[in-house]
Each structure stands twice: as C-alpha cells, then as structure tokens.
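thought: fold this chain, then report.
action: predict
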Amino acid sequence: GIFNRNAMNNRIDFLLTSENIHNDYVCIIFADLNGLKQVNDNEGHFAGDLLLKDAALTLQKHFPDYEIYRAGGDEFVIFCPDITKEELDQNVARLRALANNTDDVSFAVGTAYCTGEYDIHRAMQTADERMYRDKDEYYRLHPEKDHRKMSLWITNRKCEAGTRNKAANTKSIQQGLIAESTLRKNYHKPTQEHGERRPDNTP
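observation:
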C-alpha cells in the first residue's frame, strides 16, 4: 500500500539512528503528479481524488517491492534500498515515459542514488531539486498544462482589463466635464441676436 507522511517521517528517523546499519546503497525518488491542480480546478476534487488513486496504483506497478509514501498534495516519495542503478534507471525511464504516452497520470521525477555513508536529508533535498527541474521541463514541453503560467496569464488579463476600464472611466468623466462646461457657457451666453432689440422697460 501507500504510506502517509507520518510513516515516512518515522522511516527517516529510523534511518538516522546510529544503531541501524545503512544499506550498501539506497535510492530516494521524488515523484510529483503532473496536472492535479488543473483537474481539481476544472473537474472538481472528486476527479482529483480519482487521479491520485490512479497515480498511487501506477507507482505500485513500477515499484512493487519498495516503500511508497504520499508526502502530501501531489507529491510521493519512494525509498528503494538495495536497488541497482540499472534497475533504477529502467523504472524511472518507464515512469517518465508516461508524460508523453498518457493523458492522465504522469509524473515529474527526481532521484538521488546513494552508496556507502550518506546523509538521508541531503539525499532527499537532491531528489526534490531534480524533481522540480524535471517538472519545469515537462511544462516547457506541455505549456497548455502549466497552471502556474495560466494563473499568471489570468491575473495579467484582469489587470489589463482593470486598466482599460479605469482609462475608459477617466475619459468618460473628462467628456462629461467638457459637456457640462459647454452647457454652462451656452446658458450664460447673451440671447440677443443680430438686429434684435431688447424690450425697453422704461414706462
């Protein structure tokens, strides 16, 4: 099954205790589910939950013998003790291939392969950084799925619309003031026309 974040933290604490012997080599994998926010926003959180379940099943299919944790949100962490570099590369390549071969489940992936004495926290940080670089590359190849740029685009459009409305309102106010000024001038303008005499008020 998929373990939660508390279980992951307990596992890390276990690996950090001095009485535990490290594996000869271990790999940390960060797998971030692509497009979850877009699904939540467009199709609702029920659809997002289904996508998360499919993502978990996909990870179990590719890493059936290893510990899979949901770190939170759309992020998963996999501990692979005693996995060979060749096995790791094959599994990660298949996982990355989903980004180009499926319309639903795909991951941005970052790995840290450690041998001998290693710092588990540093390994996780390295895997996390590589995962974000992989995600940037995914959105570069699939810009239509980048909710980050879409949100920025929507914000910019709103700002542009606000600026246009403000300019239109300012122009309308200016036109109103000009019209009012013209009306006042015409109202106070003498009404005597050429050749017309004003009535004589003398008795």
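thought: worth noting. The helical segments are 5-16, 36-43, 45-62, 85-101, 120-141, 147-188.
final: tokens above.
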